Amino acid sequence: MNLDPRRITQLFASRRLATSLMVSWMALLLIWVVPFQFYRLTEAEVANIVLRERFFHIVYALVVVSLSFCMLQRLGPVIRRAARLPGAAPSGGPAPVRVEGAYEAARADRALADAGYATRVVRPEWAWGTRNRWSGLGTIVLHVGILLVMFAAVPQLDARRNFVGRAVVAEGETFDGAAASYNSVDTSAPPPALSFTLDRVTAAFHEDILLFTRLDGAVRDANDKRHTVKVSAPWIAGPATAVALEDFGYAPIVEVSALGKSKAAVYKMKVFPPGTEDSLDVRLDTPSDYRIYLKVLPDYVDRGGSAGSKSFNLSNPRFIVTPARILADRTDRRLGEPLTVGIGEPARAQEVTVTVKGVRTYGVFRVTSSPSAPFLIAALACLGIGGAVRALFPRSEAVIRSSEGAVEVAATVDLYRGAERAAVGRLARCWEEAR
Prior knowledge:
- By secondary structure, the protein is α+β, with helices and mostly antiparallel strands.
- It contains eight helices and 23 strands.
- The protein has helices at residues 5-12, 15-37, 43-52, 54-83, 105-114, 137-156, 373-392, 419-433; strands at 97-99, 119-122, 126-131, 163-170, 174-175, 184-185, 196-205, 212-221, 226-230, 235-238, 241-258, 261-266, 278-282, 290-297, 300-303, 306-309, 318-326, 332-334, 339-341, 346-349, 352-369, 396-403, 406-413.
- The strands form five sheets. Strands 4, 6, 10, 11, 12, 20 and 21 form a seven-stranded antiparallel β-sheet that branches. A five-stranded antiparallel β-sheet has the order 1-23-22-3-2.
């Protein structure tokens, strides 16, 4: 079989093949991946499903190869066009405009320079200039960015190389990054080297609506450098590691006393939004263990004898406490009616006294680590730079030439065809002013 390299290049670089492959890839995602989202599978589980299927690998590899050939095929023409200097009178733009006066090479050179055309070729019968001569390379940079995204997605398909975990950290607590310190881990990959101390979690809401107006965390890394972590702005803790703040909650400081024994600790409880009840178990070296049921009312208000909260903001906290004794079968028997107390006020029920010494907030942090992160950062940089160069600095060519005893000016502008008329008008004004 005689394989013509030129035919192979044309095949893989064709827009038709690239479009077909992209449509095939999106169809595979819709048919094979998206339905699993309805089963609430984790990212790692979905990635494992994709990783096992060879047809994903084949289509993905073909997309990368096609994109590479497209980029290589267009690289040469872009460079040649940018480097080209005309040896004969160029045709100019599609709609040349005649201007007054006779053609003069020096005047044409001044007009092109005043119009912003930095590279110029001036001849006795015509003058040519170009502005943003090398902006066409922005297209290549864009292709490089897309190619980097494609390569970066390869390790994303392997859950064994990507770590995703969630850690619940209270204010004043130091997170050491050990595997046992995570509350949940979605993958089998080892956790990244990470350590930070949570100084503060700030949460604010719009009146009595469960709508965040602010949610951010102030943390210090192992070098005591401060960082701010937000929902939409994760802290980049390393080249491949990102820490995002997903949620927050209350961590009451609770002291439990009974029969001469006492214990105080910070408990990270699920008592948000207000009115949600959670419990904590306490062992005091007494004949019975105790279970404390707790609700937090962050902005307390008495509504005709019924305790409530005016808002979600932690401005005037009260606590509804119900002590219980744990039985042998791990069920419990409550020791009295719920008691509403403030910070430092004891809630007594039979032999048990519960005192809420204070309340902190905690943050739920999502830690991700992937070897593809540096490639994605580089890809975003390429996409941003390439797109900005092409959009903000389009290449433009202009011609001033003698035509049948008159002078014609013409211009072309990449991407923005409607801008050609404005470019021709500016060039005509510069010609008039260059007398």
